[in-house]
Design brief:
This protein is an alpha/beta fold. The chain is built from 13 helices and 12 strands. The structure holds pyridoxal-5'-phosphate.
Length: about 400
């Protein structure tokens, strides 16, 4: 056997998105790319903002001495200062460069946090449906995932959360705006979650970290504003990246921001920096650190995403699909008209529409649509959605 049992099992169980990607390639070969409507991937087609290209050109025309060398494992001081300034502004706290560790995307950020804080068997609570890599990342560092179902509106249920916490609970991961539902957590919920965690820490005399995955925090609609995490809970960390807000997922640039008043801060931050090194990331990409430090106030235009959200939501609901209207990110998570979400996704696939079954996010009975694609792709998919709706007599 060439693979460990764990890796083999995880590859088999968690391969829905990869499977759709491979099946999509087969369909594209067979029917031509224009006739396949791939709504399965969270890979934005939007190009990075003009400011990114200007900063890249400026750097290549005015190279900095030593800019391709190793640096401190935490990242360049100038970049961390720029990030700290933005985080301070958004969270109404006083973060400094010392509170920031630059990472290889949000994936790198989550991995260094979990590596730094988990003892074997420690539990990490997530709210289903959730980004499935959480389970892999938690497992990477010897932890155990505890998935709690959300309410009908895909919001965390705080009474369930309180019941699930015990001595072994080490962290809770939240993700708002959410992948796969597009739901945004209201400020009151975040505050009450912080209060619940503080109560539970006292009850068990433990430390529980709140990890806020904020990769979609700049992609919110309906005039909604970012809900800062630091004022809500003292032992909180932000894990994020510029994969979505600057449309740079291939460049792998992200960071961890630590609550500036967290207990034992120096030890925690040194641990995160150490883990950045020993997990083999070493440091976040140097070139990108030198670019994004000029772009902390910049984001892709959300109007295009909002338009696509409105168009797709209006069309799907008029066909009879049941879904919570997303308020952020670029996903929707409608209920599958039949119980078996895998079977439903296959019916759509027969009509060249690619989506992902809800069980790929720990929640069978639903399916995920990703609308970070061309308008033409969205329009083209409507025929398939309508046909399947008729087939299952939705309206
Ligand atoms: C919720 C969530 N967290 C983290 C990530 C990973 O982001 P990155 O590409 O910056 O590692 C993604 C990517 O799609 C995501 O959807």
């Amino acid at each position: 056997m060439s693979l460990s049992e764990n890796v083999r099992r995880r590859m088999q169980e968690g391969s829905f998105i990869r499977k759709m990607f491979e099946e999509g390639n087969l369909l594209r070969k067979k029917h031509g790319a224009d006739n396949v409507f791939d709504l399965s991937l969270g890979n934005p087609i939007i190009e990075p903002p003009a400011e990114f290209k200007q900063a890249l050109k400026h750097l290549s025309d005015n190279p900095l001495a030593g800019m391709h060398r190793y640096m401190e494992n935490a990242g360049y001081e100038e970049t961390r200062s720029a990030v700290a300034k933005q985080v301070s502004l958004e969270n109404n706290v006083n973060c400094t460069a010392g509170d920031i560790v630059m990472t290889v995307g949000a994936g790198g950020a989550l991995n260094i946090i979990l590596k730094a804080i988990l003892n074997p068997g420690d539990e990490v609570i997530v709210f289903a449906p959730f980004f499935m890599e959480y389970d892999n990342y938690i497992d990477n560092h010897g932890g155990k995932t505890v998935a709690l179902m959300t309410t009908e509106d895909f919001l965390p249920d705080l009474s369930k959360l309180e019941k699930a916490i015990h001595k072994k609970t080490r962290a809770v991961i939240i993700n708002s705006p959410n992948n796969p539902t597009g739901v945004v957590y209201p400020e009151k919920l975040v505050r009450e979650m912080g209060e619940a965690l503080a109560r539970k820490e006292k009850q068990y005399n433990t430390h529980i970290y709140l990890i806020s995955d904020e990769v979609y925090s700049n992609l919110m609609y309906d005039g909604l504003k970012y809900v800062p995490i630091f004022p809500a809970y003292h032992r909180s960390l932000i894990a994020t990246s510029h994969s979505k807000d600057l449309a740079l997922p291939g460049e792998r640039i992200g960071y961890v921001a630590v609550h500036p008043e967290i207990e034992n801060k120096a030890e925690l931050i040194n641990g995160l920096i150490f883990c950045n090194r020993i997990l083999g990331f070493v440091n976040a990409p140097a070139l990108m650190q030198n670019i994004v430090r000029h772009l902390q106030h910049v984001s892709v235009s959300i109007s295009e995403y909002e338009e696509k959200r409105n168009f797709l939501y209006n069309n799907l609901t008029s066909m009879g699909y049941k879904l919570v209207k997303p308020q952020g990110a670029f996903y929707m998570f409608p209920r599958s008209p039949i119980e078996n979400d895998v079977e439903f996704v296959h019916e759509l696939q027969k009509l060249n529409v690619l989506t992902v079954p809800g069980r790929g996010f720990g929640t069978p009975g639903y399916f995920r649509i990703s609308y970070c694609v061309n308008f033409k792709t969205i329009e083209g998919s409507l025929f398939g959605f309508r046909k399947v709706a008729e087939q299952f007599r939705l309206s």
